[in-house]
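thread: overnight batch results

M.L. [08:02]
morning all. the overnight job finished for the chain we discussed friday. pasting input first so we're all looking at the same thing
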Amino acid sequence: MASAKRARNWLATSRRSMDHSHCVVSRIQQFGIFPNTSTRCAHRRHLFKTTPTLCRKINDPRVGAMSGEKARLEAPTWMVWLLSHGGWLLLTWHYDALPWWLVLPLGAWLVAWQNSFQHEAVHGHPSGRPWLDTALAAWPLGLWMPFGCYRESHLRHHAVAELAKPGVDPESFYVTPEDWHRRGPLGRALLTVNQTLAGRLVLGPVLVALRFWQTEVQMLIAGDTRHLGAWALHVALAAPLLVWVVGVCDIPLAAYVALFAYSGLSLTLLRSFNEHRLAVEPAERTIINEGGPLTRLLFLNNNLHALHHAQPALPWYELPEQYRHQRAALLSENGSYCVKGYGAVAWAHGLRPKDSPIFPGGSS
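M.L. [08:03]
and the structure it wrote out:
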């Protein structure tokens, strides 16, 4: 009875959170960065099957913005922003005094930590004001992707009914059977290696970046200029950042890319490696990785990914308590797709593909 009562209370909290949430995409349209999404908003989508304990009906991409009327202080999230960006400034300033083997893990951590902060900002944290959250999150420490493009892509990821389906989910690492057959032996080998953890960490950053840049170029060729605003902001912020890195701190650009940008994206891909899997039921495609203290802090509890998809508006520091209350319901919902930590992932899939890179069925 107590467990059922907690579940009802949790569901009521989830509904209140969504009732007071605003659409991040629609709120940032006033800045002219992204197009209107009303056509996508017309279709109802489900992130989870309807159950007594978990129900997330999605009408549109409004998944996670805090209410502008009653934004909370969110001191833990502000602290992450201060430590990640302040730590980056200190590390780059003292670059010459430190050995590369120390700069590498520290640089990777700080860039990956900022990536985690950017994820919070997409969902309306820490301020609930899109212009302020963008100002905090848009500094391109990782260089390769504008924050505005990431925000649009991630909101679409939350809005789709078919998680992990190529051509539907923009964050999918899978390909259609048709795409697989179009690729040559080298392309197929790269896709297969990318399904191992070693391959994802070593080759994943370049594969992800190339795919994103190719998509952006194709959009421009097709006359789609909706991301130009995001790219303009990206370039405007990257210029002083590189002046600081190369001109002031005297860090060679290649060294910064290797020790900070590439390694930081690689560490971020550790988290996303098995966030979603192949499964018949979409609700069973999203993982719970219970992680350890360091990875939970680094990824801001986004390793509890099924819970994040159930309650995208919840700030990162509230996820562990909710997980303790709702663990049984979440695991029942996602088909017990759960691992104890990233060590277990490395042991099982360090050199062995986690699954096929081919998504079953035809093209979308």
